Amino acid sequence: MRGPLANPPPAPTSRWCYGPVSSPADPNIPLVLPLRASFLIFLQLPAMNSSLTIIGGGITGLAAAYLASQAGYTVRVVEAQAEMGGLLRTFSPGGAPLEHFYHHFFTHDAEIHWLVEQLGLQDKLTYHETSMGIFRGGRIYPFDGIGDLLRFQPLGLMDKLRFGLTSLYLGRKSDWRSAEDVPTLDWMRRWAGKGVAQHIWGPLMKAKFGPYAEKVPLAWMIGRLGQRLNSRQSGREQLGYLQGSLQVLLDALLEALNRQGVELITGQAVRGVQIEEDQLKGIDTTDHHFKGGRFLFTIPQLYLIPFLQDQAPQLASALSQVEYFHAACTILALDRPLSHIYWLNIADENLPFGGIIEHTNFISPAHYQDQHLVYLSRYYAPQEPFAQQTASEIKDSMIEGLYKVYPKFNKNWIRKSWIFQTRTAATVCDLNFSDKVPSCRSHIENMYIANMSHIYPDERSTNNAIRVAAEACKAMGLEIADVPRNQSLSGQIGFAR
User: Fold this and answer.
1) In tens digits, what is the pLDDT along the chain, a chain of 497 residues?
2) How far apart are CA 62 and CA 254, in angstroms?
3) Is residue 281 within 8 Å of 53, Cβ to Cβ?
4) Which of 134, 233, 213, 268 is nearest to 379 (CA)?
5) What's the Cα-to-Cα distance from 150 to each of 6, 92, 157, rounded to whole Å?
6) What are the backbone dihedrals phi and psi of residue 357, each rounded to the nearest 5 degrees, phi first?
7) How far apart are CA 289 and CA 461, in angstroms?
């Protein structure tokens, strides 16, 4: 039984029918008492007919739907695309499905472990030791432990010591709020040393953040290094993956939502919102109008802003402060591996990708008909020249770029190739980004917002999206299941209750 809401929504329209009340047998009992008693009983009934419409069928929206339906809400999820899943979507390269954009879990990801257990998928979750490297100055350097650091030729001994100490310090630092106005690269130049900034952090940050590299706050780096450091055991990193890809998680979650009576609606993009006297009455989509109850928007803010500019210009202006990075992933199916490294960071600004992720150095190629699957990944800002290229041009340039990293590479190794792109891969988290993160509870009654911006200062991940979903449900006053938290820094901004 669900208790009363901590912050209940406006009283829903009753589904109960009350006919005329007969006169009591005792004429001395006033008629008002039965009426008052009936009214009080009605107020104490759980608000089982309270409704929640969630806009966005990615993991944040679906996890929120799962929690809200368990709390007794009538829930519908409205998704613009033909399929649910958002950045979890997969395709079939041959054999098992594969994500459009690479995914893995950390050993300390409590939220994803919770959902996996809820859905009965514990036997599908496996952890594997992985390897990392850095490409710098025309050479690949393994980068898994102290020994590799000592062999990293671009740095002198003192720089190596300072790199190790500062990385350890930031990975253990919990007070990220005091570091929001500190540029990461400025801090690195001062404390890790100019050599470390020049040969490691500078090129890596520029490859990931492009024109924003100098504005990324140290708070983000604290979250990033904390994730990596806490997923290491005996110096080697352990990363998790679901057998059969995240499609297994998505399918199980959708099946659970169907059992719970959640209405799942695809192919319906938002076309307008109905706001009257600072209250959201309903939304228009491609073919429908949904009205009544509460509305939780989990879509990127840039898709919501156009519909608010006339009716809620103040909110539209606030939401427009958040910018997004685009991303492109070229996926190659090769007849042989490129190397033994799972994750190769590219510390070279002149290459068309920022990372080479050899998925089948993490998950055996036996699952993919013995194909060796490689992601060539690039984040980029919409104003960069890279953004003007067609998908075919991006894919071709990335394939050509492989020759600079692996001179023996041959295009004849490629069996198949694909490219996937998104306009909303990550938010641009610049200095004092928490000032731009919107409040989940907007000033528009019945309108709530929870999306990728709420993951800051942590890094985008499936785990952190679940955390944001849980915090959004709490902000709406729902009495939800206790979703555990471990290392995640997500969901700490914008959810004051």
Assistant:
1) 333 333 333 333 322 232 333 333 333 333 333 333 333 333 333 344 489 999 999 999 999 999 999 999 999 999 999 999 999 999 999 999 999 999 999 989 999 999 999 999 999 999 999 999 999 999 999 999 899 999 999 999 999 999 999 999 998 887 899 999 999 999 999 999 999 999 999 999 999 999 999 999 999 999 888 776 765 555 578 899 999 999 999 999 999 999 999 999 999 999 999 999 999 999 999 999 999 999 999 999 999 999 999 999 999 999 999 999 999 999 999 999 999 999 999 999 889 999 999 999 999 999 999 999 999 999 999 999 999 999 999 999 999 999 999 999 999 999 999 999 999 999 999 999 999 999 999 999 999 999 999 999 998 899 999 999 999 999 999 999 899 998 889 999 999 86
2) 8
3) no
4) 213
5) 55, 41, 7
6) -110, 110
7) 32
Both structure tokens of 217: 């706050």
Tell me which residue has tokens 């979507």. 89
Map the chain to HEC letters: CCCCCCCCCCCCCCCCCCCCCCCCCCCCCCCHHHHHHHHHHHHHCCCCCCEEEEECCCHHHHHHHHHHHHCCCEEEEECCCCCCCHHHCEECCCCCCEECCCCCEECCCHHHHHHHHHCCCHHHEEEEECCEEEEECCEEEECCCHHHHHCCCCCCHHHHHHHHHHHHHHHHCCCCHHHCCCEHHHHHHHHHCHHHHHHHHHHHHHHHHHHHHHHCEHHHHHHHHHHHHCCEECCEEEEEEECCCHHHHHHHHHHHHHHCCCEEECCCCEEEEEEECCEEEEEEECCCEEECCEEEECCCHHHHHHHCCCCCHHHHHHHCCCCEEEEEEEEEEECCCCCCCCEEEECCCCCCCCEEEEHHHCCCHHHHCCCEEEEEEEEECCCCHHHHCCHHHHHHHHHHHHHHHCCCCCHHHEEEEEEEEEEEEEECCCCCHHHCCCCCECCCECEEECCHHHHCCCCCCHHHHHHHHHHHHHHCCCCCCCCCCCCCCCCCCCCCC
Please tell me the distance from the alpha carbon of residue 66 to that of residue 469, in angstroms, as a whole number: 9
The two tokens of residue 126 are 């496996």
Residue 18 and residue 37 in contact, taking contact as beta carbons nearer than 8 Å: no
Structure tokens at 186: 């400025």
CA gap 200, 163 in Å, rounded? 9
